[in-house]
Amino acid sequence: MLKMKLYHDIFDRELPPLEEVEHLVQEAPSAEHWHMLGMVQFQKLIFHQAEVSFTEALALEATAERHFHRGVTRVIMGKFGDALDDFEAVLRFEPEHFGAHYNRGRLLARLRRYDEALEALETAQRLNRAQANRLQVGRAMRTIRRLRDGDTRESFFDRLRGLLGT
């Protein structure tokens, strides 16, 4: 079984209260304010509204970060094709964006596009080995190779790690 965490930084940010950001958007709608509103909504798990806010921000000014955050939101909402489009947009802005390569690889694996997934994850691993190790990219790549090759058995060590929760 392939288990990979979604990579993002939204919960790591300290943001103003929702009501304050909503007021900012009403008083001075800007790409920055819409983006901030989307992040606050994401933190509050209001994903449909967060997607709308990120889309509003992107309509005013497209950036890698805004596409990335909308892509993460869309993954959670199950909009995998749209999320892939967002991660690919991130890579047009920033070709070496670790999170976009990692999340793109994660999605491609889920869609059984294994060769593309491996390529994206290899790039992510090359860009930030420490983060890739923390997210167990090497282990995921081994599993993807087995799935691609038709071998759905887990290795003894992968089963043991799963049992131990490591």
UniProtKB/TrEMBL annotation:
<feature type="repeat" description="TPR">
    <location>
        <begin position="98"/>
        <end position="131"/>
    </location>
</feature>
<dbReference type="InterPro" id="IPR011990">
    <property type="entry name" value="TPR-like_helical_dom_sf"/>
</dbReference>
<dbReference type="InterPro" id="IPR050498">
    <property type="entry name" value="Ycf3"/>
</dbReference>
<keyword id="KW-0175">Coiled coil</keyword>
<feature type="repeat" description="TPR">
    <location>
        <begin position="64"/>
        <end position="97"/>
    </location>
</feature>
<dbReference type="InterPro" id="IPR019734">
    <property type="entry name" value="TPR_rpt"/>
</dbReference>
<dbReference type="Pfam" id="PF13432">
    <property type="entry name" value="TPR_16"/>
</dbReference>
<keyword id="KW-0677">Repeat</keyword>
<keyword id="KW-0802">TPR repeat</keyword>
<feature type="coiled-coil region">
    <location>
        <begin position="104"/>
        <end position="134"/>
    </location>
</feature>
<protein>
    <submittedName>
        <fullName>Uncharacterized protein</fullName>
    </submittedName>
</protein>
